[in-house]
Amino acid sequence: MNTTTLKSWLQSHRWNEEAGVYETDNGNVTNFLSYKDMIHEAEQWASGWRKELGAGDSPFIALVWMDQSIYSLTSLFAVILAGGIPVPLHEYTVPDEVIRIVKWMEPDLIILPSSKLQHMGGELQLMDKCKRCHIIEIDGKDRWHIYGEPKVHLEREGISSQLNQTAIIFLSSGSTGLPKGIMLSDANMMANLRQIQSAVKLGAKDRVLLFKSLGYSSTFTGELLLAMFAGASIYLCSIRHPLELIRWVDKLQITYVCTVPALITALDKNRSWSFPSMGSLMKLLIIGGKSAHNTVESLLLRLPSTQIMLCYGLTEAAPRVCIFTLNDAPDKAGASGLPLDGVVLQIRDDSQEVEAGTTGEIYVQGPNVMLGYYKDEVRSKAVLTEHGLRTNDIGYVDDDGYLYVTGRVDNAMNVGGHTLYPEAIELVLSIHPMIDEVAVLSIEDVNWGERIIALVVCNPENIGEQELHSYCQHKLQPAQRPKEIVIVPTIPKTRSGKINRAVLKPLYLEVHHDKYVH
Amino acid sequence: MTNTSIDSIQTKVVHVIAKIVKKNAENIVDDHQLIEDLGLDSLLFLDLLAELESEFGFELSIDDFDPEYFHSVRSTVVFVKDRVPA
């Protein structure tokens, strides 16, 4: 088994000196830093932080609020090089959620760009709310500032053996109102990196367009580390619409894009573009849920020089599990792929593995399966079973070994590639003083996969829906916000007093059938 | 295009924006910035454009994404007016 750590890999890798990270604005390059210089810079930062904070050899936990900038990447690598465990935070995380995460995780450090520090009300406000933490503000090249008492030791006492093996923690939506902290080891990360590269085969001439949040393991491992590993260059950008994707691909001669079904659906729906637009794109990887058959089949025709790759994964598996190239197997348009090297799938019913073609719950075994959930042994034990990682996804494997994902065991919803739980949204809404009861459901949506609806019982009854939407804007991440809030007299319950989820959707559709988008 | 139809486009665009950002149309003014003032996020942006295409019957093209469009209510109204036949 290869025991390379992320830190030793970053320190010893022979970087392609011409490759690095480009920042772009409106399709124009505005900044560039080679990987070699970025890691050198990160080493300098790590050394400076250790000196000022007295960091020793034990790991410390650093929440890193990421934006699409070279300096966010540098700060994340600096944490790894300083011997810390980074916890990347999505750019779009709302301040209230940051405070909830800090109180639960109890990190030693919070690292964030100046813009985010202002968003939190400045360093004094943030320090007041996060008393144990030190704060590092990043405001550009060679410019960081530490707030908090100087010269304190960062080492955590009584560190668990799992945390001792942890290289990075990714946050993923949970059903409790707090995210799940998914602890991945160096072995997990390096294994999945090699597994992905073995399937995707990026090269030094590739250009990767990176626009998804760096808080996802998919973006971090499947795009950022993969490009660095292959010596390919990264172009950071933001994309508001799929037609912008076409613009930036053409303008920057991008060869590799990784995106979600929502963007692919909108891209295919628009008939104003045609090949050779996107002609430079060699590989298009679709992650975060299943795309409609007709969409991927249509793209196969509309992008004749592009390999369309479909895959399956979850953060708990670092994250990729299966992948395949649709061009090589066009009759498998509904599949999620074949297991990556070293990954073994099992489809199980209640007590045993089932035969090919039979639907059951998907279990994953392999070197990429996580160490466990941070501060949650009960949940860790529930999913790390003797049969492998219990995914909560339902599906089957066909006679050729291709995986098909067909549903979920739990109540999880998929909105534009984000896995979300109704329970977590209900918890946040239920805190509103005017809301007595709430139930969240989803209906199919042609653009986003699913659309979130909240049914609420209010007191007083005349509270405005707009006020509730405004509350959601402050308390929930964009993907979690209900598209519709319906004020109802009661929430249907089971005999035991729980929300009767089985009847929510039929009830909603009965009254609002005209809004049902199918 | 007559003044009436221009006014009608203006009103319709404001109503579409209001529907997407979940605000009262009466409280939305031309100078409002879509992101900063009305809270339009990346998911809602895609919904807004899809709704404008559906409401006014045009299809967006690659050249429609110049930076001068879609930053304010006014620039969005101008964008739609340029694409709706007289």
UniProtKB/TrEMBL annotation, chain A:
The keyword Amino-acid biosynthesis does not apply. Pfam families: AMP-binding, AMP-binding_C. It comes from Paenibacillus arenosi. GO terms for molecular function: ligase activity. PANTHER family: ACYL-COA SYNTHETASE, MEDIUM-CHAIN ACYL-COA LIGASE ACSF2, MITOCHONDRIAL. This is Acyl--CoA ligase. The keyword Metal-binding does not apply. Residues 30-374 form the AMP-dependent synthetase/ligase domain.
UniProtKB/TrEMBL annotation, chain B:
The keyword Repressor does not apply. It holds the Pfam family PP-binding. Keywords: Phosphopantetheine, Phosphoprotein. Residues 7-84 form the Carrier domain. It comes from the Bacteria. This is Acyl carrier protein. SUPFAM superfamilies: ACP-like. InterPro entries: ACP-like_sf, PP-bd_ACP, Ppantetheine_attach_site. The keyword Phosphoprotein applies.
